[in-house]
Specification:
Blueprint: H1 2-34, H2 39-46, H3 50-58, H4 65-75, E1 77-82, E2 86-91, H5 99-104, H6 106-115, E3 118-124, H7 126-129, E4 138-144, H8 151-168, E5 172-176, H9 184-190, E6 192-193
Parallel strand pairs: 4-5
Antiparallel strand pairs: 1-2, 3-4, 3-6
Helix pairs in contact: 2-3, 6-8
């Protein structure tokens, strides 16, 4: 009789644990999709591989605290571990982009820009002025050193925009300083170094 009670208790615990894991997996997938990210894009943002994200979402691995922290920053979730409910995820409000947040990722931003032939990164617009909200994008001004013309030039700017968006977690607009015409003085005057 005691053996049966122990076996039943283990089965209930396993079932409860399975439900908790399933709920966490569902919340993680939903948050990734709500952020408009593929597994590969999420992996790039948190510094892991697509296969690791797939394993997290399928429940075959348990995330570390460091991984949870990175996920929280990128997909806007708050994680909680509590008795009888295990690991749960809760939505948080999206934060607004700030110079402080950008400067916290300065090294990563500079590296991504250099990979695409850009340097001298500056920020202008609502983030620079301090009046950005959660829906604001980040306006960046760069000096491109790559020798690209025509479609290749615009492709390079688009690749840079995507890379910076992945690194900082906010939509980014990128302008090449050499491409400024009518608004050159105004943008250069407003832009601040990263």
């Amino acid at each position: 009789m005691a053996e049966r009670k122990t076996r039943d208790a283990r089965r209930r615990t396993a079932t409860s644990s399975s439900r908790q894991r399933d709920a966490f997996q569902h919340q993680l997938v939903a948050a990734r999709l709500a952020a408009g990210l593929t597994q590969s894009e999420l992996a790039a943002r948190i510094g892991t591989t697509q296969s690791a994200i797939a394993r997290l979402e399928s429940g075959t691995i348990t995330p570390t605290v460091e991984t949870l922290s990175r996920l929280a920053d990128v997909v806007g979730l708050r994680f909680e571990i509590a008795p009888n409910s295990g690991l749960t995820a809760h939505e948080t409000k999206k934060t607004k982009p700030t110079m402080q947040r950008l400067r916290a990722r300065r090294t990563e931003i500079i590296k991504a820009a250099a990979t695409h032939g850009a340097h001298n990164i500056r920020v202008f617009g609502s983030v620079d002025r301090g009046d950005a909200d959660a829906a604001s994008d980040v306006d960046m001004l760069v000096d491109l050193v790559a020798d690209a013309h025509g479609f290749a030039y615009f492709g390079l700017l688009e690749d840079l925009r995507r890379a910076l968006t992945i690194v900082i977690g906010y939509d980014v607009d990128v302008l090449d300083c050499a491409g400024l015409r009518d608004m050159r003085e105004r943008v250069l005057e407003a832009a601040v170094p990263l």
